[in-house]
């Protein structure tokens, strides 16, 4: 497998599907979901585990609902395992 940066949209969701697969593979998906500043209670609230595919409007609404300050802190708390899993 090779991971690289691209400006191309990989899917209609941009890089969401490959990102979800990558984050699940390195074991960060569960931690991101558990630590997420937005608590989702709907049975239709799948996002990180990707057990089902959500519409792009759902993804946009989710990220719009994340407070920018809390979102920055959320990613900062979880960035080390994500960057650590990337090849040099």
List the helices and strands and how they pair.
Blueprint: H1 16-25, H2 29-35, H3 56-65, H4 68-84
Please tell me about this protein's structure:
It is a single chain. The protein is globular and about 35 Å long. The protein is an all-alpha fold and 88 residues long. It has helices at residues 16-25, 29-35, 56-65, 68-84. Helices cover 50% and strands 0% of the residues. The chain is built from 4 helices and no strands. The model has no long low-confidence stretch (mean pLDDT 74). The longest helix is centred in the last third of the chain and has 17 residues, at 68-84.
In brief:
The chain has 88 residues and is mainly alpha-helical. It has four helices and no strands. The longest helix has 17 residues, at 68-84.
- pLDDT < 50 stretches: none
Which term fits the overall shape?
Answer: globular
Taking all Cα atoms into account, the compactness measure Rg is 13 Å
- Major sheet size, sense and barrel closure: none
In percent terms, what proportion of residues is strand?
under 5%
Distance between the termini: 14 Å
User: What is the number of E strands?
Assistant: 0
Please provide the ordered H/E string of secondary-structure elements: HHHH
What class would the helix/strand composition place it in? mainly alpha
State the helicity in percent bands.
40-55%
